[in-house]
Amino acid sequence: MSDVRDDAPSYVSKDSDVQKSEAQQGEGTVWGRTISIMRPRDELYAFWRDFRNLPAFMENIVAIEPVDTGRSRWTVKGPNGDYQWTSVITEDRPGEALAWASDDGDVKNSGRIEFRDGPPGHGTYVRAILAYDPPAGFIGKAIAKLTQKEPQISATRDLRRFKQLMETGEIATTTPPNREPHS
């Protein structure tokens, strides 16, 4: 048997061992995506590095509370309530990459975001990788998919909103801006 591999990102591999090589803590589910954003790499990194900015485009974030310079407490909406964990920065290369892993909490997870210059005139390539163990395993993952709270679905939408926010200064929505509250 040969060990031939292509140059595709490991998170899209059909070989689960190769795919899991992206999981810092051995999580069972790995997701990744790369998008291009027409903004300078340093600007995108600085915006992402200030965790107070993340709820602006991540729709399931309830709160991110800094604990110290390398740790923060996250509260995220899930299919059956809120989940909390403490996240620790495991790698921080200004302007290039940021990686994190959960230290404790309801959902074991880790992730990485990378910023790479695209070809001239094509902005920055932003690569996001998320690894996690869904609460309640396969059943929890299925329920999360049904309720659209599955991290892969949310992260794809979050990256799209990040692109919109950074390129235009706003996020497109179908909700009327002056909508009256429901009573």
From TrEMBL:
InterPro entries according to UniProt: COQ10_START, ORF3, START-like_dom_sf
Organism from which the protein derives: Sphingomonas psychrotolerans
Compositionally biased spans, kind Basic and acidic residues: 1-20
Region (Disordered): 1-29
Name of the molecule in the record: Cyclase
Gene3D superfamilies to which the protein is assigned, alphabetical: 3.30.530.20
Top-rank lineage group of the source organism: Bacteria
Family that this chain belongs to: Belongs to the ribosome association toxin RatA family.
Pfam family, one: Polyketide_cyc
Domain Coenzyme Q-binding protein COQ10 START: 39-143
